[in-house]
Design goal:
The protein has 335 residues and is an alpha/beta fold. The protein contains eleven helices and 13 strands. The strands form four sheets. Strands 3-2-1-4-5-6-11 form a seven-stranded parallel beta sheet, with helices on both faces. Strands 7-10 form a two-stranded parallel sheet. The N and C termini lie far apart (39 Å).
Length: 335
């Protein structure tokens, strides 16, 4: 495969690119290296990818129309895995325009590039944030997702709708993957595991929202990457007898599908912190706080559709995944 991975210097994009390169595929990694978090961490990831002869890096902003047109006109990608986005639920409350630029305009440029160059399959990152105010557990792709509680979640839902329009109008095969709280080595510094680890080792308090009574479906990075790899060759097909095909929020007569990728096992934040404390050999100083705007009490992925489609179920428990992160953190930061 000749694959474009957007957000290749990011957490998930780096791990996916690395696996694709190790398997012998050629990868063009796109990233704008913005300063939402430590750029040196992104550069360190890129340094590893640049060690492969089958990797090419493109310093490009998704929202730059002309640059994106040029990229697609000069390449012939078999697959595009779109992972670049302005991330962060809380950041979206203070900087909403960044999400319109990257997550909406940027995604439109990706769709246009895929349409013009007739890409075999576009796989793009959605998020568990689309479930918003949903309370039925576990979250299923068959559930309506019409009540987001953050602009970030709203942009991800918008991506799913935009992809469906392109699938219907132009026959572009698109698969959206709703990721659930991804963690692991080389993770994002704005995520809880990274923030908690840094603070505990430095003897500073950690901010524990809702007094630790929230639950998250923490999903290890290797499980996320394996799920993406399984989905890439699983190209959605158009259903020609549209009237006979039952419409649902996750599938359509168009070549368009949605899948959850989560660990299928919600973990209470209190327990998550306890496992981290054991891995670090040090107790946390907890600053218990109320819920933040844009947060939800729990996430829990129904992954039966993913398993049925590609035969994959994530398996890594936090009792094994968190120590792997801690080991990487200590080595990378020489702690």
């Amino acid at each position: 495969m000749h694959v474009l991975v957007t957000g290749a210097a990011g957490f998930i994009g780096f791990h996916l690119s690395l696996r694709l390169l190790e398997k012998g595929h050629s990868v063009v990694g796109l990233d704008n290296l913005n300063d939402y978090y430590d750029v040196s961490l992104k550069q360190s990831r890129l340094e590893i990818l640049r060690g492969f002869a089958n990797f090419t890096f493109s310093l490009t902003d998704l929202a730059d129309d002309l640059s994106m047109e040029n990229l697609f006109s000069k390449q012939s990608f078999s697959h595009v895995v779109h992972l670049a986005a302005q991330a962060g639920v809380r950041y979206s409350i203070e900087h909403p325009r960044a999400y319109g630029k990257s997550n909406l305009n940027g995604f439109l440029n990706v769709l246009e590039g895929c349409r013009e160059s007739k890409v075999d399959h576009l796989i793009y990152a959605s998020s568990s944030s689309v479930y918003g105010l949903n309370t039925k557990m576990p979250f299923s792709e068959q559930d309506p997702v019409d009540h987001p509680v953050s602009l970030y979640g709203a942009t991800k839902k918008s991506n799913e709708l935009m992809a469906h329009a392109y699938s219907h109008l132009y026959g572009l095969p698109c698969t959206g993957l709703r990721f659930f709280t991804v963690y692991g080595p080389w993770g994002r510094p704005d995520m809880a595991l990274f923030l908690f680890t840094k603070a505990i080792l430095e003897g500073r308090p950690i901010k524990v929202f809702n007094n630790g009574r929230m639950e998250r479906d923490f999903t290890y990075i290797d499980d996320i990457v394996e799920g993406v790899l399984r989905v890439m060759p699983h190209i959605p097909e158009k259903k020609f007898e549209a009237e006979a095909f039952p419409l649902s929020p996750a599938e359509s007569p168009a070549p368009w599908r949605i899948y959850n990728i989560g660990n299928n096992k919600p973990v209470r934040l209190d327990h998550f912190i306890s496992v981290l404390e054991e891995s670090l050999g040090k107790k946390a100083i907890r600053d218990n706080l109320p819920m933040q705007p844009g947060d939800v009490y729990a996430t829990y992925a129904d992954i039966s559709s993913l398993n049925q489609a590609v035969g994959f179920t994530p398996t890594m428990p936090i009792e094994e995944g968190i120590p792997k992160f801690v080991s990487w953190y200590r080595e990378y930061y020489k702690v």
